[in-house]
Amino acid sequence: MPLDLDTRTQLIDGVRRFVTERLRPIEAQVAADDAVPDAVLEEMKGLGLFGLSIPEEYGGLGLSMEDEALVAMELGRASPAFRSAFGTNVGIGSQGLVMFGTEAQKEKYLPGIASGEIVTSFALTEPEAGSDSANVQTRARLDGDHYVLDGSKRYITNAGRASLFTVMARTDPDRKGAAGVSAFLVPRDLAGLSVSKPEKKMGQQGAHIHDVVFEGVRVPVENLLGAEGEGFKVAMQVLDKGRLHIASVCVGVAERLIADSVAYAAERKQFGAPIASFQMIQAMIADSKTECLAARALVLETARRRDAGENVTLEASASKLYASEMVGRVADRAVQIFGGAGYVADYGIERLYRDVRIFRIYEGSSEIQKLVIARETMKRGG
Ligand code: COS
User: Fold this and answer.
1) Ligand 1 lining (C-beta closer than 6 Å)
2) Is 368 helix (H, G, I), strand (E, B) or coil?
3) Looking at residue 199, what DSSP letter applies?
């Protein structure tokens, strides 16, 4: 159920205040330290951000997709590294469990995920299974009342802090592709599970990705998530929602970049006048604003349709494709409007320019979104 208007306004106002007063002032420091301070993580827990999408009966806020999208847009106005700290709990790290978990699994894990005590990660990608995510090689072999996991996962967000992984592994080696893959809930403390050092990245410093290695990890059979052989579909449905969440964040970052560009253009004088008075600057602002409004409308419409129970695989991919490409263009124009200052670290625009680049890649590249959109459109006959 969507929130009533008063509650929604209160929630959005609270998040906006947190973003403005607590997150924006420390963005540069977080990037320099490559870490979000523990005190800020604790405040995020207190605000319920780790549990935005966890049902209320398990201690979360149980937001509708539309409300979650609105919150994600607000959070997009601060460095995306902050959102990433709890993004896996709200999205890909928890939603398999929310959608496909047994009652016992939900009771065991969801309250801790909602409070932020448990940090989650989604382990699908492997060295040879990126865009071709059905080519999972990690093996899960049944041995009595355990599955034994062997293999490795790559670029796993929040793996360093995670205490619970949703892992896609191949239970049937004779079946190639999606059919032989199953999903598992894998606690971090099981013997044989190790996490590498974080990768050095182009942007979003403070958010970390790691390799995760499984060497004879014994996972109890009751930790199978969904039916055996259904793990790929679990992953795809989790990603349908995740893509919509990422698209919402892209809209938020674009809105912030436009606001920053407008403020700078009003203040910066050249040829004796603020550059905002020049039509070529105005054209960039107009293009960015129009595209951002279009993305916002697409994302919110898709969220409302998902809340109404419709299949939005196509629309979620279209939202992710359009919003992530849009924010790339908006960031590029922001650098251009800021000119030399856009290239200098102190102004923070170059940081956001680097930060947004990953939106076109993770949770499915733009090319994969186009593939999904085309397939679904042809399936629907138009
Ligand atoms: N919801 C439910 N089921 C889905 C689905 C969805 N969104 N997408 C696919 N499936 C089902 C299909 O219906 C099919 O089931 P049947 O065999 O019973 O018909 C099965 O899953 C296999 O799907 P498909 O044949 O489409 O798989 P492909 O290997 O051709 O490719 C793509 C699927 C390329 C779309 C998928 O691998 C993908 O999304 N890749 C990108 C992965 C990604 O986003 N990685 C980021 C990692 S997380 S940061």
Assistant:
1) 122, 124-125, 131, 133-134, 177-178, 232-233, 236-237, 239-240, 313, 362-364, 368, 371-372
2) helix
3) P
The CATH code that applies to domain 120-229 is 2.40.110.10
In whole angstroms, what is the distance from residue 165 CA to residue 69 CA? 24
Region(s) of the chain under CATH 1.20.140.10: 233-380
Residue closest by Cα to atom 15 of ligand 1: 233
Note down pLDDT in tens along the chain; length 382 residues: 889 999 999 999 999 999 999 999 999 999 999 999 999 999 999 999 999 999 999 999 999 999 999 999 999 999 999 999 999 999 999 999 999 999 999 999 999 999 999 999 999 999 999 999 999 999 999 999 999 999 999 999 999 999 999 999 999 999 999 999 999 999 999 999 999 999 999 999 999 999 999 999 999 999 999 999 999 999 999 999 999 999 999 999 999 999 999 999 999 999 999 999 999 999 999 999 999 999 999 999 999 999 999 999 999 999 999 999 999 999 999 999 999 999 999 999 999 999 999 999 999 999 999 999 999 999 999 9
Question: Which single residue is written with the structure tokens 């989650």?
Answer: 120
Tokens of 153: 């996962």
In whole angstroms, give the CA distance from residue 249 to residue 15. Answer: 14
Task: Give me the CATH topology for the region 5-115.
Answer: Butyryl-Coa Dehydrogenase, subunit A; domain 1 (1.10.540)
Q: Quick check: is 363 catalytic?
A: yes
At the fourth CATH level, which superfamily is domain 233-380? Butyryl-CoA Dehydrogenase, subunit A, domain 3 (1.20.140.10)
The length of the chain in residues reads: 382
Taking the C-alpha atoms of residue 8 and residue 125, their distance in angstroms, rounded to an integer, is 35
